[in-house]
UniProtKB/TrEMBL annotation:
Belongs to the TRAFAC class TrmE-Era-EngA-EngB-Septin-like GTPase superfamily. EngA (Der) GTPase family. Residues 3-163 form the EngA-type G domain. GTPase that plays an essential role in the late steps of ribosome biogenesis. This is GTPase Der. The gene is der. GTP 1 binds at residues 9-16, 56-60, 119-122.
């Protein structure tokens, strides 16, 4: 059985930046099905020799201020249905928001391995501020700077160990 890791979260948290980093030197998979790649991007990655598929969600990111909650909900549900593991990304720059709580309420029902990633933790100051997200109550908690790659190793070690 193949392992499928979905990256979900509200717009602008850094999902695509992590996706592109995971796909380094690899090609994104272009799905011939109309509409599919507009909403979601698929790619192959591996960590320590363990292969997995990554799904980047959020074709709605363009003009992110007027995103309908319903569209985010739909995307999250599609990813959850398809994935075997879920990376739930939030960002410390903008802090914990209502939509993060709503997304988490959808994700917790999935009963799939769930990894909370607090992104844009570029420095020690932000690492500290990221503790705000403890209140979500997600057991597997990581801080990351997907722009620099720091923190990705810890996440991937745990992710593939749970496959
Ligand atoms: P998405 O909408 O969740 O897919 O977010 P993107 O990956 O498109 O990133 C949104 C913006 O955040 C872009 O301008 C990125 O360059 C920036 N960004 C992503 N990751 C980081 C990070 O770790 N630190 C900082 N400072 N900026 C980041
Ligand atoms: Mg994106």
């Amino acid at each position: 059985m193949s392992n499928i890791v979905a990256i979900v979260g509200r717009p602008n948290v850094g999902k695509s930046t992590l996706f592109n980093r995971l796909l380094e030197k690899r090609e994104a998979i272009v799905d011939a099905t109309a509409g599919v790649t507009r909403d979601r991007h698929y790619g192959k990655s591996d960590w320590n020799g363990v292969d997995f598929t990554v799904i980047d969600t959020g074709g709605y990111d363009v003009g992110s201020d007027d995103i309908f909650e319903e569209e985010i909900r739909k995307q999250v549900q599609l990813a959850v249905d398809e994935a075997t593991s879920i990376i739930f990304m939030v960002n410390v720059e903008e802090g914990l928001q209502d939509i993060d709580h709503e997304i988490y309420n959808l994700l917790r029902k999935a009963n799939k391995p769930l990894y909370l990633v607090v992104n844009k933790a570029d420095s020690a100051k932000e690492e500290l501020a990221a503790t705000e997200f403890y209140q979500l109550g997600v057991e597997k908690y990581y801080t990351m700077s997907s722009a620099t790659g720091s923190g990705t190793g810890e996440l991937l070690d745990d992710l593939v160990a749970d496959f």
